[in-house]
Description:
This protein is an alpha/beta fold. Zinc ion binds near residues 683, 740 and 743.
Amino acid sequence: MSxxxxxxxxxxxxxxxxxxxxxxGSEGYVTTKFYFRRPTTDPxxxxxxxxAALEYDSDGDPILxxxxxxxxxQIKHSSSTSLRMVGLQVWRGALLLADWALHYGPSLLRGAxxxxxxxxxxxxxxVAAMHAREVVSTDVDLGGILDLIKTNIDLNKRLVKAxxxxxxxxxxxxxxxxxxxxxxxxxxxxxxxxxxxDVDLTEAFVQTVVKIMNVKPKxxxxxxxxxxxxxxxxxxxxxxxxxxxxxxxxxxxxxxxxTSAFNALTxxxxxxxxxxxxxxxxxxxxxxxxxxxxxxxxxxxxxxLITAEGVEDLKQTAKESGEASEDDIKALxxxxxxxxxxxxxxxxxxxxxxxxxxxxxxxxxxxxxxxAYKADPTVIQALWSAxxxxxxxxxxxxxxxxxxxxxxxxxxxxxxxxxxxxxxxxFMKKYxxxxxxxxxxxxxxxxxxxxxxxxxxxLEKNESEPFLMSDTIYEGCTFRxxxxxxxxxxxxxxxxxxxxKEYASNDLEKNMLEQYIKSFRTGSxxxxxSGSGIWIKNKGPVVETYIGFIETYRDPAGMRGEFEGFVAxxxxxxxxxxxxxxxxxxxxxxxxxxxxxxxxxQFLKPDYTSLDxxxxxxSGIPAGINIPNYDEIRQSEGxxxxxxxxxxxxxxxxxxxxxxxxxxxxxxxKYAVTAxxxxxxxxxxxxxxxxxxxxxxxxxYNFDIESVVNPLTNEKITSWxxxxxxxxxxxxxxxxxxxxxxxxxxxxxxxxxxxxxKIFGAEGEDAENVLYINWLNMFWAGGAKAxxxxxxxxxxxxxAHSQARYVILRVCLEAGEDFVKITETEPGKNLLLTVDRSKxxxxxxxxxxDFLLKxxxxxxxxxxxxxxxxxxxxSEVSDDGTYPWATWRSIILAHKQPRKIMVQHNTKLNxxxxxxxxxxxxxxxxxxxxxxxxxxxxxxxxxQSLWRKDAENFYAEPPAQLAAIC
Length: 966
Ligand SMILES: [Zn+2]
């Protein structure tokens, strides 16, 4: 396989150790000398000593006495490799484990047989071999790694005392060599250093370790791992990596459309939705303050740039500056969109930094020729100077979010580490405080440390609020709980929630908003919890909303919530279509390929409402959410499962469907949304709603055991659900993928019915196309998408729907007759999926019908054994035969598309009603939507003053431009 997107990576340790250039004829290898001194004392014998007897250096490491004479290990290695071949380099974990072996070897390794996994260059094995009886060094037999280990052992012959064996061992391989299996019977110590750097590999590694540890004699594993946020975060940048931190100019933009749902609202409901949206948008600006020190200034700068002149004028002035190309201007618009869509200069999904895809000098030129600059040169110049460097910086510690020794965060001041976070976490636990709505500021004054836990609130003074405790000493530090974070922005949130309250449709909504307002005004988290409790009681509202400090993904400590606000409406038009489907349920259920004896006595409509998003502020838009996150509320009051119906078809819209012919892509673009509605409606209502479970309860059967015949065997029913059995208890881990597959097959099968297509507004040729796209999309999802959710290491599916669709594709491929075809058009690079549409009603119908019948019969009769056998066969991802799926998975992953940016509507007051403002699904449309979302510059002043308030805590030296900006 040619690996697509294999960029070069370099171990960070080479910044500490000088590494020369490869010599000619060295095949790209360099040799590095690692100097060391052996310890004079045996640390195991030292264990009895009290900790105080040890002295520590400035990094907190114990100072050990060492022998004076220096020794050296020579290691031949690569100085940079592709990610696949990182074993050819020396990593921090190997240094650490080698250091450990140097100190503990004399006592712990003496006389032992040691096995090293993922040996790499051999550094750790060599040190172990200074003490052990035998060292078995293993690694994957790839790219000459095994030979490199042998060479390095030879290079250090002088030091190596143990017998050395080098063997191939691949974590992903099931079959291990006889030699390895024999050696395992002698091994008592297992070493592994920095051998895992992605999810698949981690799973495979753990399985390997489990297998090894189960072989007698008893073994001890010593494992060194550098803690990383993302596999890439420890790698130094090379120019190719820039693409990881930019939005490409061809980033797809899509409209998050909710027009029909919004238009179906009454004027009062529209006003309610409008003020809730305003509250959400203002609150969403808090996220900038929660992201990076510079983010509030970046917002302010970009926002001034796009409000001072229209987007077309901005493009024109940029062009006239004579410095910026069309691509540069586009890159600027895409950067603005990227920052605004993520509420800051770090991605909401993945936490990596966003930098502009145009050179700094050219961005500066555009800014200094803009109308914004002409209107207020001092402020624009000051904003630019204060954040230009941080906009572009890709220093390792700036690449991702994290504690200050790993990345960037503003949830903690930069003088805080994981240790501070743990101390504060313990304090908060002791005093029953939660993190959701606060940030942590640490102040050091001589030997005194003060931690300030700052709550988000409008009120800035701490007067007589019972939840605001007085200064408390804990573990020798002072803890102070204060409030007033984001004050100005939260005031705007509260003002708008007050107005929304006037248009609430019931008392629950009013009381809920009152509690939220109380929470945002005072900083009381309890008030937000009671608001959330009321929210759960407000079942099926026409306008749904949730607002506050909700998701904790981006706090490195995982407890502080990011502000988020959303407003969504029940899609009445869609609900009407779903209603018509339910009204037609009876005749439709009769068409399903099982006898009526296998159908429920009465059709029960499953609980399902789909909401269309009007507003979603924060760092990203999910397709569904399950909230609130407060555990005690979830247990006492429950939670809501909110499905954001317009987010999913929106994701189709901006999608370039790969692996399809041009004609199919065009049809897909035109009909995917309708096909998706048909699919969701049938899946949710008739799919999950259909079919009967045969039960025996209190000695009675809920079916006629004498007459009901199993259509697969033509014999009487021989199995059922006994007392206490449920579908989940019988089908266990297979259950959800199997049931999703059944629902999807019902969807495919009933989409053949013309009346169904008519309910969704498709007739004649349109109906034929919707039908075709419904089936094509299923196969496409099963073939071109699903494998992203498969783990080759554990050979398991990570997602029920993905597995279900893959199984359906396999079933139809098996049907043959050239109905569905997949070909590798460019070896290792591209695939083509085709469906013969003339065969849907014949070959397709029969294949899905037969399969669906089996799915239902096994489910009805509780025959999980037959279900397992059948389903597992189709779920298998093998590399043999006509369809080498395991290989194709790499092709599919290589075609993964850039994440799209959604363009949201605005609402605007128009007398006593509200208008919905829509924008083009382009960078220009996106930028326009944001200039109209906040037409005035008061938000800039607010963000600038919040930045100023934070600056002294987040900059070693606050930028000199401070005075001009604030
Ligand atoms: Zn489902």
